[in-house]
Amino acid sequence: MSTIRFLFVLALASFLAGCAAIRTGGLPPAPDKAPKHNYIYQIGPGDELDIKVWRNPDLSVKVPVRPDGKITAPLIKDIVAVGKTPQVLGKEIEEKLATYIRDPSVSVVVTKIVGDPLSVVRVIGQAQSPGAVPYQNGITLLDVMTKANGLTRKAAGNQAILIRAVENNKQYRVRLEDLLKRGDPSANVEIAPGDSIMIPESLL
Hints:
This protein is α+β, with helices and mostly antiparallel strands. Helices cover 23% and strands 25% of the residues. The chain has a 5-stranded mixed sheet with strand order 7-6-10-8-9, covered by helices on one side. A 3-stranded antiparallel sheet has the order 2-1-5, with helices on one face.
């Protein structure tokens, strides 16, 4: 490689690296703790539920929440699901099943969430499995990225941006590469309801 070409490549690499740094250079780091909140998810129309009845696989079922807000499950006629937490709905199903089986134990998990923007954390860009992760109280950045199966090879992990919906879409920088590849615990932060994590592609 000629000296002129070498200097050109070096200058181009520096320029691209500088462009990547500009993306988050002016943003504050995400705070360790998320804002205090008492968010409790309530089931909505269009959600999909995984209902498991312990020791009764024939009664376990995956069902959608209909537009009228109700679901239908084995041995149970229509029951209202909308506006209830999964835990409350599980208890109501237990009460109805108690007529047919002894000491029923029911768990309800929302496997697909529709509608409520605060009910999920969105991972956008260079994640192995980008998409929506259900929000849970106490969830952290590491939890979210584990569910998203980590970064792609093209990811500029330390240039990622966290957009916080509960703070009027304020933007923070997060260090995903330090967290996932170097195991730096200081890069892990709490997540708030409705957060979005945008992971750009490396320019190098």
